[in-house]
Amino acid sequence: MQNTKKFSKKKLTSQLSFALGNLGHSAFYGALSTYFIVFVTSSMFSNLDKTVANKLIGLITGLIVVIRIAEIVVDPLLGNIVDNTRTKWGKFKPWIVIGNIVSGLLLVILFTGIFGLAKVSWILFAVAFVIIFITLDIFYSFSDVAYWGMVPALSEDSRERGIYTSLGSFTGTIGWNGLTIIIVPIVTYFTYISTGKSYQGAPGWVAFAIIISLIAILCALSVAFGTKEKDNIIRTSAKKKTTIKDVFSALAHNDQILWTSLAYFLYSFAYVVTNGVLFYLFKYVVGKPGEYWLVGIIATIIGFCTSPIYPILNKFISRKVLFAVGQISMIAAYLIFIFARTDMTLLIIGLILFDINFAQLVTVLTLTDSIEYGQLKTGERNEAVVLAVRPMIDKLTGAFSNGLVGFVAISAGMTGSATAADMTSKNIHTFESLAFYVPLVMAILALLVFLTKVKLTEKKHADIVEELKDKLIKGEISIENQVPVTQITSTPTSIYAPVSGQLTSLDNLKTEFPGTGFAVKPTEDAIYAPFDGTIRFTFTTKHALGIISTTGIEAIIHIGIGTVNMHGTGFTTHYTDGQVVKRGDLLVGFDRSLIKENGYDDTVVFFLTQPQKINLGTIEERTITHDEKICDVTFK
């Protein structure tokens, strides 16, 4: 009992330490991607001639866009460097700590205006800025790649990996939205301490950068000291980094990845741009920068509500409807921002509507479902692409947002020491056109694309998985399509029971299975490796997996009948795709009671996917225990 408590305490410490890491990580990214542009447009060049200042603002925002887009190409290279790192502290922790320390120091230097170098020479300033920003971005990317890449190394249990990811996303929301709450008070307070004037000045921005950098470094140290990397085999797709070429190739061959990605890009562009200009709305249009903290409070509260409630709603409401509800709420918010922004009550309602969206959750799940869609259509599983496409879209929209926000600030005269009193009707109209009308069109287009072009509903995906399974077990599609062909030998391969229970032939099942293999009515809730081999893939519904033996025998282990409709609920994997396993290794935990409660059969079916090429030994009906020999299989 004492050991269990100690183990649970260590696990909890690890999970909380990892989660704390993303609080600082996301806060840092928010400071860099959103508030650095605000600082550039409002304070960095406040002592320069306005014409020169605007040129430098345009130069910097343009450089940031180019650098951010180039970062997408560089990320896979950084990932390979992280993967090839070997230290006594592991391969991820050094980059998490070093990345945050270096990028934190450089962020502070940027928020000093590179120590006023622009006053000496704008050319030297531009050169120094490019060097510093690129270096900062590279080290931030090192920490980002290492942080999320660390998840599989913390646990082999898919449920536990899900907990790490969920906790990291949860604290990331706090870190991101928390900035919105504290930004104006911090910058105003430290400016007042330094100058005796109550406004958002340069000294306050430096103090803000120092505070955020320290938080990011301390949170990175919590990951380093509070977690432990396990010596397990990391997901193959994580080792082979996805390039832009891979992404566009997958988009060209999988229309559902294409349309889902386009819908998400349109939504993300609108959302990120609007978040970038809300500070300008409160400061220059509404004239109440001190009320800007409401943006963060509302986003945090709505975020806490929408994420937990999504899986509950999705049991009764389809993803397509939930996506539509979110987009319609966003469209209504834009109408309020445009026509009723001066009414604080309506503005708050607009902010609430703006943050009620399920687009990110719906997109992730729909893109995940497109893996089986693509495998059925082309015979290829693009898991690595699916894992990479959304982060790449986030980087692209973030880059474009930085450029557009800077352009909005210059075009609307919202730079330097300008205040709400300085804004003309022309300034306001320019601001509205770029800050709200353009994103409004994007939000409408996102809704239209998703409703008309995305066909992967939950039911459609379940049908695809079943069709794919049938093709696999008939031998029409090979498990081994995307990997080097295993050396096939004439040596018989012994098949051992993947689960304890009552062994029977496929002919005795109520549902027709057009394949070669056997079935087991289970008496336990665990699946074990039936031979030495490699896990080739797992259906996203987790109810079935493909495995190939060291002798070239391909098989599918299918847990339950009809369980595809449970969409992964009740199934926990204890391996990573691409992992080499030994006979008898624990592969999957499943909840038999939950399967029956949902009205499905818990029978485990074992299929051999090369019926025309193999000879299956005799199956004798009897009671078996897992790891008990069932029969021998040979190639014809």
Short description:
The protein is α+β, with helices and mostly antiparallel strands.
- Summing up helix and strand content along with how strands pair, one would put the structural category as alpha+beta
| Large-scale geometry | elongated
**Strand content of the residues, in percent?**
5-15%
How confident overall, as mean pLDDT? 86
Helix content range: 55-70%
Work out the helix count: 19
Radius of gyration: 27 Å
How far apart the termini lie comes to: 53 Å
DSSP, total strands: 14
What strand order characterises the main sheet?
9-5-6-7-11-3-2-13
Unreliable runs: 1-6, 232-240, 481-487
What is the makeup of the main sheet?
8 strands, antiparallel
Explain what the structure shows.
It is a single chain. The protein is of the alpha+beta class. The protein is built from 19 helices and 14 strands. It has helices spanning 2-44, 50-83, 93-111, 113-120, 122-149, 151-154, 158-195, 202-226, 236-239, 244-253, 255-285, 293-314, 319-339, 344-355, 359-378, 383-411, 425-453, 458-473, 592-597, and strands at residues 493-496, 501-504, 516-522, 526-528, 533-538, 544-549, 554-561, 571-573, 580-581, 586-590, 601-608, 614-616, 622-624, 629-635. The strands form 3 sheets. It has an 8-stranded antiparallel beta sheet. A 3-stranded antiparallel beta sheet has the order 1-14-12, with no helix packed on it. β6 and β7 form a beta hairpin. α1 runs parallel beside α16 (383-411). It is elongated and about 90 Å long.
